Amino acid sequence: MAGKKGAGVLELAVLGLLHESPMHGYELRKRLNTLLGMFRAFSYGSLYPCLKQLLTSGLIMEDRPEEPNTALALQSRRSKIVYKLTADGKERLQQLLTEAGPASWEDEGFGVHFAFFSHTRADVRLRILEGRRSRLEERLESVRAALARTRERVDSYTLELQNHGLESVEREVRWLNELIGRERAEQEQQARSSSQTNQDMPRENGR
Amino acid sequence: MAGKKGAGVLELAVLGLLHESPMHGYELRKRLNTLLGMFRAFSYGSLYPCLKQLLTSGLIMEDRPEEPNTALALQSRRSKIVYKLTADGKERLQQLLTEAGPASWEDEGFGVHFAFFSHTRADVRLRILEGRRSRLEERLESVRAALARTRERVDSYTLELQNHGLESVEREVRWLNELIGRERAEQEQQARSSSQTNQDMPRENGR
DNA sequence: TTCGTCATGTAATGGGTTACATGATTAC
DNA sequence: GTAATCATGTAACCCATTACATGACGAA
């Protein structure tokens, strides 16, 4: 158990998708790439090794529905391999979904983490959104500073590029602001209704 | 000529920056990261090996300005190393700036290629912009198709993510449209003025 | 029966990061 | 004189890609 760094983004994505429903690799990859569509695309060369690794570490298992009545005794020669989560896998997924750190708000990971927000605790969601926002704001500030420093020394295409980048990020920040606002409103509403019924927020007992 | 794949994006970026003015590695990296600000950030761990490789392949050379009057006979112990392009390097840069292929319009390369558009031929610029646009439109189409297929089966966060991605890309397409429009207008104007004067005036009048 | 798609995999490679190690210069 | 920053470099590793190889299955 020492070391054994997970496959980063892919691990979460695979576990998350398999949690929604069991699947075989090929389909997994398609769902992956439509899910993340604009952000990333994985190839088989990374997916299958990842599945293999998850298998050997006991987070997923093969799940052959066994519908062999149809007179095919050896139907298993290079057929589909459907994977599903094990108990350990569910636990691992839960763990991944609970940590709100750089991995969850940097460029590589944010999309995937966001995609599974409906399985994520509300407070974690909020911290991830805020983390990403402040990350982007850092970037904005440093680029704006650089832009102010070098004003008039850059050619028009460079300027155009930096402006477009700036505007894109500003746009994402506005998007995050709106999401954060919604999350906060939701939390308040929940807090209100729970204080009404004299209950403190149940802190995610392990089910 | 056999093999010797260049260091991808970095090679172009380094050659391009050094073409504008000689620099040492540390400064190069800063300029690199402000130039590309929103898109990429390189670390020394990739920059210095790249410089080394460019050095050994003769595309850049050390350029010590030699201002040693100040009584420092051994001023060179671990001092700055300023690099500049060689003739080969300039040629290579020109070559890189002339090819309008996937490398120039895929996500990884587009920003860098665009950043040096002022050193790029007008027709190449146009083809790169159009290449990127059609690349993005492909992506839009496939995501929209997927979205239509799975409508109502996805949870709200996934939907939110996909929508945001979609809008981001649509926005970039609009940006590209405008740039392409400008480029075309410029080309037409140049064509017009050159046809106007091509009978009695020497062609090639630079401003 | 052949072609396109579904489906699973591996080996070689690649481009990059992190963490580390160290020296030089500047500001206080 | 010491801390921060400038400046150069390397080794170990990581995540993923490309290209390849193979096999099953349905439709023309």
From TrEMBL, chains A, B:
Residues 14-95 form the Transcription regulator PadR N-terminal domain. SUPFAM superfamilies: Winged helix' DNA-binding domain. It comes from Actinomadura litoris. Residues 184-207 are annotated as: Disordered. This is PadR family transcriptional regulator. Residues 126-160 form a coiled coil. It comes from the Bacteria. Keywords: Coiled coil.
